[in-house]
Design brief:
- The chain has two domains: 107 residues, no CATH class; 134 residues, Outer Surface Protein A, domain 3, CATH 3.90.930.
- Helix content is 45%, strand content 11%.
- The strands form two sheets. A three-stranded antiparallel sheet has the order 2-3-4, sandwiched between helices. A two-stranded antiparallel sheet has the order 1-5.
- It is elongated, with a radius of gyration of 24 Å.
């Protein structure tokens, strides 16, 4: 007699493949043919995950149309089944999948829009953490500041695109009736996404210098190193004011002092 894990694997393969004959022997149809019961499970699986993806990627769905999106979501659900039971955690690889679909190459910005939507979703559901108090750094000697490293809030994400995905996202919100013409070649965008004090996912454009600064902080570079990196892009970059702004926005939650090597 097959073990439970073997039965589960058999049914899983049948649901994903659509070949009911592969798992019919393990199913009690309860008044239905086993193959029919398996098809019900498969339909429920595909509908549930398609709805979950549509909730996470609503702008992508509007850009390609409901029928096309449903087909893409169903195929993705077969190729990339969930690894966790939480549906809001499902879809992290969807942008990669979209980039690999040949028929979508006419919409080269679509995977980046999906990356933005996934970052917004991740920011909404990230663990909470208290923000760094505004006066936290005032107690430190000025000579120590350049040796600080910072911990960013778990909701923080950075998305970079060669397309104006911020304007594309805004133009396809349900309450936006304006038909804006968006030039795809208007320039690269760098977006900081995080959760604000009210619990909402928010984002804003990053100038190149601030992007380099924040990326260095995320890589656990010291404040001094991050400042130097930013000044390579903008000699007038003010790291102190930028740090104050990040603390005020709740992006920075902790700091550490890197001790010099002996």
């Amino acid at each position: 007699m097959p073990q439970l894990d073997e039965l589960q694997a058999t049914v899983r393969r049948a649901v994903l493949s659509g070949d009911a004959s592969r798992g019919a022997s393990a199913i009690d149809g309860d008044g239905l043919p086993p193959a029919g019961r398996l098809q019900i499970y498969r339909n429920h699986y595909l509908i549930t995950l398609t709805e979950a993806l549509a909730a996470t990627f609503p702008v992508v769905a509007r850009l390609v149309g409901e029928r096309c999106f449903d087909g893409l979501a169903r195929e993705f659900s077969v190729l990339s089944p969930p690894r966790t039971p939480c549906l809001f955690e499902y879809g992290g690889n969807f942008p990669i999948y979209l980039a690999a679909v040949p028929t979508l190459h006419a919409l080269p910005y679509l995977p980046d829009v999906a990356r933005l939507e996934w970052a917004i979703n991740a920011a909404r559901h990230a663990p909470d953490a208290p923000a760094l108090p505004a006066a936290a750094l005032t107690r430190l000697p000025a000579a120590c500041l350049s040796s600080l490293t910072f911990t960013l809030h778990p909701s923080t994400r950075i998305v970079v695109s060669r397309y104006p995905i911020d304007r594309i996202w805004r133009a396809h919100q349900p309450d936006n009736d304006a038909r804006e013409r968006i030039a795809l070649g208007q320039g690269r965008v760098r977006l900081l996404i995080h959760r604000d004090a009210e619990g909402d996912a928010v984002w804003r454009l990053l100038p190149r210098a601030e992007f380099l600064f924040l990326r260095a902080l995320r890589a656990v570079r010291t404040l001094g190193e991050a400042w130097e990196r930013a000044q390579e892009a903008d000699a007038e970059f003010d790291g102190g004011r930028t740090v104050a702004g990040l603390i005020g926005a709740g992006v920075l939650i902790d700091y550490d002092l890197v001790q010099p090597k002996p």
